[in-house]
Design a protein that fits this description.
Length: 344
């Protein structure tokens, strides 16, 4: 079968012929219906050097996946062939305390595993078939795989980041989302569905901001020198209770810290490589600053439930597997609106 693989660091992905996988004990084989193309894949292709991660190429890309059960391995019970499923992305050891709670994104044995999951060291979903541990599939009801695949990362990651701050997002609160693209447009919808906060979206693209407004943002702010003053104006000078930084550069982190009010939360999601200076007077008193990684399996079930209810929806652009390399070129150029989804 054909698969889009990263064959070496500092190198674009390539379509290659690979052997079809077979499910082992406790595993299922999923016929992929859709695989999301993520900015983090671009980091894998262009930014990481050999030895930077505890795994090496080659492997099939695609850590944001959904499809149908094709076959099951020995010992798998209660999962029928043909069942539509979403695939939970971060794969832990399955045995440590965090994994037993469903938070394999924070597996305590991650460093020893040699991979982070399918598409992240192990073969992912940018191929017709993908081998998955049975505990990592979540059945779907009315959602198609194309609609479900982006939820496993672009939906789950901001959902987890927002959920840690729900107690701050009651009536009269303000939430700022910096970056209104693939994850950001989902963050705006999740905030709309799950909180009473007034939402402020920030982006350098007027088109992205227009979509953020459609998704529920009350105010849309162009990134730049005037962004801080504009945000503070919308919050009547108080600042934001929660800031979600989907970008993660020095500039966006500086903006996040500058507009967070006392006792607020600044949550870093983006892999922009920025850092945030910390001192007694900045950020504001008792501002909590945290980075988050993906989300838990129970949270993915909650995200899927929101989508099944029609409360959130990923904006997608579909590409064939043959056009997957081009999809990443468009993603790198900022020409993808919403989420690029590969449909093998």
């Amino acid at each position: 079968m054909r698969a889009l693989q990263l064959i070496e660091w500092k190198h674009a992905a390539e379509l290659r012929d690979v052997v079809e996988p077979e499910p082992g004990a406790g595993e299922v084989l999923v016929r992929i219906g859709a695989a999301g193309a993520c900015h983090s894949d671009l980091h894998l292709m262009h930014d990481f050097e050999a030895g930077a991660l505890p795994w090496t190429p080659p492997f099939t890309l695609g850590h944001e996946n959904a499809g149908w059960i094709e076959s099951v391995g020995d010992g798998v019970r209660g999962i029928e062939v043909g069942t539509p499923v979403a695939i939970y992305g971060p794969w832990g050891c399955g045995r440590c305390h965090r994994c037993r709670l469903g938070s394999e994104n924070y597996c305590e044995q991650q460093a020893a595993l040699g991979a982070y999951g399918g598409g992240l060291g192990l073969d992912g979903g940018m191929a017709p078939l993908m081998r998955v541990n049975a505990r990592h599939v979540v059945p779907l009801d009315s959602l198609s795989p194309v609609a479900a695949a982006p939820l496993t990362d672009a939906g789950l990651t901001p959902y987890h980041a927002i959920k840690r701050s729900l107690h701050l997002l009651g009536a009269g609160s303000f939430a700022v989302v910096i970056g209104a693209g693939g994850l950001g447009h989902m963050a705006v919808q999740i905030l709309t569905a799950c909180t009473r906060a007034t939402i402020i979206a920030v982006d350098q693209s007027a088109q992205a901001l227009a979509f953020a407004r459609e998704a529920g943002a009350a105010y849309c702010v162009l990134a730049g020198d005037e962004a801080k003053a504009e945000i503070l104006g919308h919050t009547r000078g108080r600042g934001a209770d929660v800031v979600i930084d989907i970008v993660g550069t020095n500039d966006t982190l500086a903006l996040a810290a500058a507009v967070a009010r006392q006792l607020g939360h600044v949550t870093l999601v983006g892999l922009g490589g920025g850092t945030l200076p910390f001192g007694f007077f900045a950020p504001a008193y008792e501002v909590s600053v945290a980075s988050t990684y993906w989300g838990s399996l129970p949270e993915l079930m909650e995200v899927i439930a929101l989508a099944e209810q029609g409360a959130i929806r990923a904006q997608v652009q579909e590409f064939s597997l043959d056009d997957a390399v081009h999809a990443y070129e468009l993603l790198a150029a900022g020409a993808v609106h919403g989420r690029a989804v590969i449909v093998p």
